[in-house]
Amino acid sequence: MKKYVLRLSSVLPLLFISLMLTSCGMQSIPTAANQVEADWAEVQNQYKRRTDLIPNLVEVVKGYAKHEQETLTKVVEARANATKVNFTADQLTPENMKKFQQAQGGLSSALSKLMVVVEKYPELKANENFRDLQSQLEGTENRITVARNRYIEAIKELNNLITVPPTSWYNGIFLHLAKKPQFQVENIEEAQKAPSVKF
Question: Does residue 104 sit within a domain?
């Protein structure tokens, strides 16, 4: 009986420690971090899809809107800037997230101006290639929104795991992960205005 009690007393602390580690973030924090990486990759994938569509869109518009060279140039420049700013999930600091959002915001703004130009050219709006590209671009914008929403949820889950006890204790002792930044609306007044462009 004494041997059984000794064995049990030596196994109990190990059992307790393993139970504490598995319930305190040992698996959940790395799993959440992996989900953040996957969701960030999808955000980047959808933004890349948008930048890949832009050269075709610019070429189609160029043939109709010869007088709008400045607008087309700004779209091409904004696309180039957006493709330069790329970060992995590990590099997502508040500063890098701000740079990423500014670059993508510049591209969104340039595209909006391009769509205003398109309003001046009814024959361009009727062009089958343009309509197809516009449809793909609108679909991509929707995909970007979905990907960003998934990323936001993944970040929320990870940030909760690394800042809320008891899982934050595991993070504090072993991992030392910092909170990841979320997407922020740059200019809230501008974002709340209804868009004036009608498609």
Answer: yes
